[in-house]
Amino acid sequence: MFRRVVSARRARGLSTVAMTWLNRIHEDIATAMRRDPAARSSVEVLLTYPGVHALILHRLAHRIDANGWALAARVLSHIARMLTGIEIHPRAQIGHDFFIDHGMGVVIGETTIIGDRVHLLQGVTLGGTSTRREKRHPTLEDDVTVGAGAQIIGAVTIGAGAKIGAGSVVVSSVPPGATVVGVPGHVIAYTNRSNDTVERLPDPEWDRIDALERRIADLEREIVEAPDATSMPPTREVPEGSAR
Predict the structure, then answer these.
(1) Could you tell me which of 20, 160, 186, 189 has the fewest CB atoms within 10 Å of its CB?
(2) What domains are defined for the chain?
(3) What's the pTM value of the predicted model, to 2 decimals?
């Protein structure tokens, strides 16, 4: 009787795990269909999208690592990298509705934390700088988009709804709703997430020119208002040919 109860519980447990696994795969396919206008069918996504394949294998490797089989998990992640061109460390934490577009060259480090509805394009690196066994990789909050070839390095936090431009190098935290471009990355816009409108669009070059103009005006005012500016005696003209 006891054995039957144990067997029934194990069967229910395996059934629950299988259903969770299938639900996550269905979620991956639905996310790809929603994010990529080139996706025409669920079968096409399941068979031909390396980002979906990488996520499926990562979840398996993550589960294996959580059960204490670190080497087997790393071997599986290595196989996944060879098959998909995407490297995800088994201990990386990834939320729901995550989509890797194209995927080739994506690297996600060990202590990376990724929220929900995050979108990465090809060539993105979520890397670390420290050699210590600590949190050394980025944290991406919900609804973050990272463009092709962007590099986010270190234990920085990319705020919810932020956008990282293609080819940017980010080494400091980014506030929510910000758009970052350049090397090193700098904020060029802030977006109101409630209505998707740009609230502020700074122009770094114009800001510098404006600052220089204000400084020149201040210097001219100081010269005019200086105490000896009007009290200096007039310069005496020296006749031509006279001794100096």
Answers:
(1) 20
(2) 1-86 (1.10.3130.10), 92-224 (2.160.10.10)
(3) 0.71
